[in-house]
Write a structure and sequence with these properties.
mainly alpha, about 0% strand
């Protein structure tokens, strides 16, 4: 009986390991798709702004607005679009209905898929 339980336990552990690897692949694919979407949204917004003509409220994106980049210094009229994609995701979670009551770090991490 113990041998059967050990064999079943081993199989379940292998299944868990396989599922974790699959989840990591899916998470990586999701992150890449979100980055691609961010690039497309930014391109569309930029084209719309250019086609709309000059605006006094336009703030140029900070140099190096990529994942891992420092957050640019805040300025009046600054849009969220000047932030790197990961920072924009954080802002969107913090501005969501779910965060109206406040979020703990662990809740924010979960909402960001970490």
């Amino acid at each position: 009986m113990l041998g059967l339980l050990e064999a079943l336990e081993k199989k379940v552990r292998e299944d868990i390991a396989r599922l974790r690897e699959e989840a990591e692949r899916v998470q990586a694919a999701l992150c890449e798709a979100e980055r691609a979407l961010d690039r497309l949204v930014n391109a569309r917004v930029t084209v719309a702004e250019v086609l709309a003509g000059p605006s006094s409220a336009v703030v140029e994106p900070a140099r190096g607005s990529v994942a891992g980049a420092p957050v640019p210094h805040r300025a009046d009229g600054m849009a969220v679009s000047v932030l790197a994609p990961d920072y924009r995701r954080i802002v969107s979670v913090l501005e969501s209905e779910a965060s109206r009551e406040g979020l703990r770090c662990q809740q924010l991490a979960r909402a960001l898929g970490a």
